[in-house]
Amino acid sequence: MPLAQNPLSIEVTLPREDVALITVEGYLDVDTATEFQHHLANQLHHGRRHFLLDLSAVPFMDSSGMNIILRVYQEARTLPGSVHIISPTPAVRRILDLTGVSITVPVSEGLEEALARVDAHDEDREEDRDESQAGPDGQRA
């Protein structure tokens, strides 16, 4: 069996207990998307709610890669969690912008910015929960 033409390297680190930083290197296409999907599914299985996808070393991504990003985005939202793309290469950023994926999935320039967005997401969820527990006069039940 021949080796993949464009091997994919994926490294997973945990900046926080519920945050997975997935660093992808190589072509994210129909030949490599399944491996990417397995890494994301594994992190979901282990209770991660937030996914930071570092695409700074991905020179090319096709619709297979975008579909997986959108699928994990939909799954993370139900947890509730979030997905953030970090430092996509210009070619990948252009694809994300042209397809509208960058409107749905936030794009950050670095890890610190993405983690700040995770914090803001969790704060928003906390505020929503507090408001839903308040009585009609605004007081907590």
Automatic annotation (TrEMBL):
- Show the segment(s) annotated as Disordered: 117-141
Which residues does the UniProt record annotate as the domain STAS?
Answer: 17-118
Question: Which NCBIfam families does this UniProt record tie to the protein?
Answer: ant_ant_sig
Q: Which InterPro entries match?
A: Anti-sigma_ant, STAS_dom, STAS_dom_sf
Know the name of this protein? Answer: Anti-sigma factor antagonist
Record Gene3D superfamilies? STAS domain (3.30.750.24)
- Naturally occurring in which organism (per UniProt): Streptomyces plumbiresistens
Sequence similarity: Belongs to the anti-sigma-factor antagonist family.
